[in-house]
Amino acid sequence: MTLKIGILTGGGDCAGLNSAIKWVTKAAVDPLLTAHRGEAMEVLGIRDGWRGLVEVDPGNPESLARWTMPLDELVVRTWDRHGGTALGSSRTNPFNPKNDQSQKCLDHIRGLGLHALVAIGGEDTLSVAHKLHGLGQKVVGIPKTIDRDLCETEYTLGYDTALNVIVEEVDRLRTTAGSHSRLFVVEVMGRHAGWLALEGGAAVGAHVILIPEHEFDLDRVASLLEQRRRAGVRYDIVVVSEGARIKGQGERYLSDKEDSFGHKLLGGISDYLAKQLEISTGYETRHVVLSHIQRGGQPSARDRLMGRYFGIAAVDMILEEDFGRMVALRDGRVASIPLKQALEKLFLVDVEALYDPIRYNCRRASVLPLSVRAG
Question: Is the pTM higher than 0.85?
């Protein structure tokens, strides 16, 4: 018997997705592995995430050509070199209470003859996978989000590439900032998790880093920047997460419109902050929103490798009937955890351990206890 598995990518695109798709496919159809396990497999790519499973008509050849793509080693051979997702993505939520299409999704999975489904995504995509598993569908998850906010895993696909993009772009901004003695406020993604801001800001040497996990005082930020100028520094970089909040104020949104998962589009904090800092300090100030630039470009070596490790592990989980679970990185090793456990809460910056609320920057203390001694 041949096991047919489906694979899809949901939510925002990022680097590492194509690598995961490639290695799910290669691990599934590899003839040597097939001979070893005595079970053949084939892979069907689902286009545009959960939307593909909602829209496809399994009995219609034209619909199948539009919403699915048979995958083999030749098709995916070079995919891991490229960012984004060759299968396409969407923010479709089959369990949207305003238009529940979950039964249609289940019917189409069965109509396509899928033994199991691999869902690659973040909190929203994997929450759909978890709900489908609760309705009897065999599902395996692979974690993907540049926000790195999924708990119980030390890595999520896309994070390292996004971090490197922040470094590259801020390094470019430095030439203009230094030439014109300007203050630049750089807004990065992350929603409610400050990992990109914290680690990206630390990597580029930002003087001020503002994260969602700790409200900041506007006057304190201005004071920190003024101290630097008095010390003779010509320019400054402030890195702020899109979800960062001024004390006494809420998050800022670009629109009140909600997507099918109930999220509003965060953004605008850098624009507001730059204007306020220019008024309070008198320094020429500009803001830059990196936005979707962080998602794009060629994958870093780490994202290519993690896509490989996660993809192979997902196939192993299918063969072991380890369903309703997500591939994870735990203590430096690939493991699997229940989807429910991965979705119980967000993985956020531990302010007490990692953030300096006085300097508004990374904590300078060692991350290791001082009592730890070599030998």
Answer: yes
